[in-house]
C-alpha cells in the first residue's frame, strides 16, 4: 500500500491477508505466535491476528527494537508495546497494518485503522450509532454516504486507539465530534466532547488523516502533549 504524505516519524507496515493454511504458516515463519486464547479461533481470525503481529514486528524492527517476542494482548485487548513506544494495529477483510513511533511531547500516542467501505444498506442501519445529526451534515462533501460513514467510524477508531493508553476505557462513538473537513489535505478535525474534556482538560482539535484506495480506507491519528493531560 502506497500512502501519500505519510509522516516521516511514523513507522508503517502493510500486509495483504489471505485466508489459507499456507498463509497462516507463512506468518508463523516470520517468528510470531498465536496466543492460547486464539488457538481455537476461526482461520480468518488467526490469519488476521498473525498478519497484524507481523506488521508490528516489522515496524518495531525499523526502530531497532528487539522483536523476538510477539506483541502481547492487554486486558483491554490492546497491543502491549515496549516502553517508550506508542503503536497501533488494525486489520479488516484482506488487509493488516501497524504503526509505531517513539513517544515524545509532539507524539504521545498513535492510532491507525483500516476498513473496507460498508454497504449502503449497512450504513443506513447503523449511522445513528456512529454519527450525530450535526456530523451527518458533512456527508454532503463526499461522493456517497457509505464512504462518509465508514470514514468517520474509522477516524474515531483511530482516535480512541491513540488515547486508550492514557484512559484505559472503552469509549462510545459520541465521545468525539467531527468539526471540520479538509478534502484537499485529506484531513478530518475532531474535538473532545464533554466527558473527555473533563478527563484531559483540553479542547484542542484532533487531526485524523486518511487515504482511500479501491474500496478500502485507512485513517491514522497522532496525539501530542497538548491533546492530553
From TrEMBL:
Pathway: Siderophore biosynthesis; enterobactin biosynthesis
Listed Pfam families: 4PPT_N, ACPS
Keywords: Enterobactin biosynthesis, Magnesium, Metal-binding, Transferase
Family annotation (SUPFAM superfamilies): 4'-phosphopantetheinyl transferase
Residue ranges of domain 4'-phosphopantetheinyl transferase N-terminal in the record: 38-100
Cofactor: Mg(2+)
A GO cellular-component term linked to this record: enterobactin synthetase complex
Positions that bind CoA: 45, 53, 90-91, 113, 157, 161, 171
Domain 4'-phosphopantetheinyl transferase: 109-195
Family listed: Belongs to the P-Pant transferase superfamily. EntD family.
Subunit text: EntB, EntD, EntE, and EntF form a multienzyme complex called enterobactin synthase.
Protein name from the UniProt record: Enterobactin synthase component D
High-level lineage: Bacteria, Pseudomonadati, Pseudomonadota, Gammaproteobacteria, Alteromonadales
Amino acid at each position: 500500500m502506497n500512502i501519500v504524505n505519510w509522516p516521516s516519524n511514523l513507522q508503517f507496515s502493510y500486509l495483504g491477508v489471505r485466508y489459507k493454511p499456507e498463509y497462516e504458516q507463512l506468518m508463523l515463519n516470520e517468528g510470531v505466535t498465536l496466543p492460547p486464547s486464539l488457538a481455537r479461533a476461526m482461520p480468518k481470525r488467526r490469519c488476521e491476528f498473525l498478519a497484524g503481529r507481523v506488521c508490528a514486528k516489522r515496524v518495531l524492527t525499523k526502530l531497532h527494537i528487539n522483536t523476538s517476542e510477539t506483541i502481547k494482548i492487554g486486558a483491554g485487548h490492546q497491543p502491549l508495546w515496549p516502553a517508550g513506544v506508542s503503536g497501533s494495529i488494525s486489520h479488516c477483510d484482506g488487509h493488516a497494518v501497524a504503526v509505531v513511533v517513539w513517544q515524545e511531547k509532539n507524539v504521545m500516542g498513535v492510532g491507525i485503522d483500516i476498513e473496507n467501505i460498508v454497504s449502503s444498506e449497512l450504513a443506513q442501519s447503523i449511522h445513528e450509532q456512529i454519527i450525530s445529526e450535526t456530523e451527518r451534515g458533512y456527508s454532503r462533501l463526499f461522493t456517497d454516504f457509505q464512504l462518509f460513514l465508514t470514514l468517520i467510524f474509522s477516524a474515531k477508531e483511530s482516535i480512541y486507539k491513540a488515547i486508550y493508553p492514557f484512559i484505559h476505557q472503552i469509549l462510545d462513538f459520541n465521545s468525539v465530534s467531527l468539526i471540520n473537513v479538509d478534502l484537499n489535505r485529506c484531513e478530518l478535525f475532531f474535538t473532545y466532547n464533554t466527558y473527555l474534556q473533563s478527563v484531559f482538560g483540553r479542547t484542542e482539535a484532533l487531526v485524523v488523516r486518511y487515504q482511500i484506495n479501491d474500496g478500502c480506507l485507512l485513517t491514522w491519528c497522532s496525539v501530542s502533549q497538548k491533546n492530553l493531560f
